[in-house]
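Handout, tutorial session.
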Amino acid sequence: MGNLIYFLCIFVLASLKGVLGFEGSNVATTDLYYNGEKYGGYSSSSNSKPLMVEITFIPWAASRGAVCLDGSWPAYHIDRGYGSGANSWVIQLEGGAWCDTVRGCAYRKNTRHGSSKYMEKFIPFTGILSNKHFENPDFHNWNRVKIRYCDGGSFSGDSQHEEAGLYFRGQRIFSTAMEELKSKGMKNANQALLSGSSAGGMASILHCDQFRSLFPMNTRVKCLSDAGLFLDAVDVAGHRTMRKLFADVVNLQRVRSNIPQSCSRRLNPAMCFFPQRVISSVRTPLFLVNAAYDSWQIQISLASPSADPHGNWYGCKLNNEHCSVPQIQFLQGYCGISGALVFRSSRDQDD
């Protein structure tokens, strides 16, 4: 039987662990809002204030060439597990789009998504990283880790641009971070979940089997991608914005060598940066969560300013109540296309 792929086209994820099949699941638990990238949005009551977790740098990574765009050390945040979760780990790969040009990456290296020098020293652990049982009943006492994103290539590039002083070392950052966490006890995990949101969600798919290979076969390992399914869709002007973006990222950052060969042997490597081209070859159980109407994809992929120079989609992008009937019909195909692509990939592997 082929790999196990789950797909939900929704906004709220309920009882993750029960669905994923980890030990000690609580199927009747309260909803878990998987909110990987929004720092904030909590009430002022002391009971709701999130745990603030300090940053940890990996200085020795520099000797491996595993550095951010500007050459600074990679970093992560960790809160230790306890009790029944002492030997369970959830790793979240931070998201934050991509940089596909030298100019864009040169700008990015002066931000927290390109340099650990600009990263927050403390970040709140919310959603799947929360330490509060009522917010995160299934994972609150696991070892919870957030790996910061500073390469601009979904943790997959391996190149550099000497003239611009840019280091595209996402693959090395991922491998080095995993080695670091194994030294912190992850090598003894009895169950582990690799998760990510947006560009980090894409990375959780691309690195899912590599993550599985870090553990003995008796360790229960699964992967979760939240909002990481980016479609090779035609935009409102009839162009394929995401295809060009991904082609530029793959070429600039030399991602090809880190894309599953089962795909790159058949297709242009840029096409293999689209998760739907890769998931059929992922052997590790994989869980996909995508919003029915992903605001980022609508604004950047489907109706970007360049595709909509006259602003006909401006109001619709901000509020769907301002969408015309044709615009609503155009958007309604999104969830169906996403689900069809995932299930077709799963079926193709089973066949």
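The second record follows below. Compare its token runs with those of the first.
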Amino acid sequence: MGVGGCLALPWRCLVVLCLRLLFLVPAGVPVRSGDATFPKAMDNVTVRQGESATLRCSVDNRVTRVAWLNRSSILYAGNDKWCLDPRVVLLANTKTQYSIQIQDVDVYDEGPYTCSVQTDNHPKTSRVHLIVQVSPKITEISSDISINEGGNVSLTCIATGRPDPTITWRHISPKAVGFISEDEYLEITGITREQSGEYECSASNDVAAPVVQRVKVTVNYPPYISDAKSTGVPVGQKGILLCEASAVPSADFQWYKDDKRLAEGQKGLKVENKAFVSKLTFFNVSEQDYGNYTCVASNQLGNTNASMILYEETTTALTPWKGPGAVHDGNNGAWRRGGCTWLLALPLAQLARHF
């Protein structure tokens, strides 16, 4: 109940009647406002919820009696407070101004307020309308959702405020640009894995900063192996095969050599599984380790596999020459030995001239 319900007593009607007699306002006589000869009250007063509203009425020396009313309830008559609401206080009662203040304003205080004066035996009134603005507040929003790829998603965001807030949805993603919906409801048909992530609802009405809340949308899809390469390793060295797969939920990995599944903890082997990658490690590669390996990635939506080969990597470097000119230098060794052969050919050619 607003300040208009301050005087809720059994003799309320009597009080109103007394006030009418006091100002000589006959019942049924239309309210006269906007008289050029009468100092008017303010037009409209707009405040935010929780703030204070000041209602001012300009008067002059012709005024003999003055009062503020809310609808049919008396708030103040002269210096006398008729209202029981402690939020309503008298600010000024002078020869030029009659003002009251409503503190900690709420939405039920919104409405018309009347300044009534008695001057030269002619009662007149002026009305002001109090407008209460309310910051936006999200009262209902969808919960986080998990859905399989290709399904349909419906998100809801309900907000209140005065004036009514504007609601927008946007996808929190580096690839998303601008708003994807300017409505309380967001519909996504045939959702893809790229559309997973957080969706932000924003409610704004220029009364205060926009309020935002987010909904997380998880899109489930079967595994997809993105990287699986064959590897060459010399005998006696350490070898590693990697298998990378994206999936939601995360994939479970299994390794096979030919048709035999490799067990965790098998001698000389180690299998390490993480969210999106599985690593098969050979600590000391032997001839028996070479061959075809298959990585299988699976979750409740499906499975996929990829084959790779662990093969023997042989060294192709030639046996280094002994003595002057022999250079052991990986790829460049053969070229340098070729240079020595060319230098030896010169004295042999000179010797052939003598014969």
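Points raised in discussion: The mean pLDDT is 81.
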